[in-house]
From TrEMBL:
InterPro entries membership: DUF4907
Top-rank lineage group of the source organism: Bacteria
Alphabetical list of Pfam families matching this protein: DUF4907
Protein name: DUF4907 domain-containing protein
Length: 124
């Protein structure tokens, strides 16, 4: 009379191997010590943010690029009803720079208020 079938032996072997592998201490893949491994600088993403104003049918707008790709496109003045764009290139650029500032300083979502735009004299 057999105590264990070949299937039971195989199952026992697989379970034992799984337990043994899960309890082993994992070695770091890198040969560098923990003191040599440093996190990337926080400014790396912030350095890759740019704002470009552009002309629209309603005035001026801006696009914010992150890592060279469009991230935010604003065709009109935020918080103002209708499709009214900024009156000048400089105003659109300044509004975009405010949004970039908020992104760089982790003020998310980078919404702007009517008071902020008014205080910067960006409302027409």
């Amino acid at each position: 009379m057999k105590l264990f079938s070949p299937f039971m032996w195989a199952t026992l072997l697989i379970v034992t191997a799984g337990i043994w592998l899960s309890t082993r201490k994992k070695e770091p893949v890198s040969s560098k010590s923990q003191s040599e491994i440093r996190a990337p600088a926080k400014a790396t993403i912030a350095d890759e943010i740019d704002v470009q104003p552009f002309v629209t049918e309603a005035g001026w707008g801006y696009v914010i690029y992150m890592k060279g790709k469009p991230y935010i496109r604003q065709d009109n003045i935020p918080v103002v009803e209708g499709n009214k764009g900024f009156s000048t290139r400089e105003k659109a650029l300044k509004a975009g720079q405010l949004v970039v500032y908020k992104i760089k300083h982790a003020i998310l979502p980078p919404t702007v208020s009517k008071q902020e735009l008014d205080s910067l004299q960006l409302l027409n």
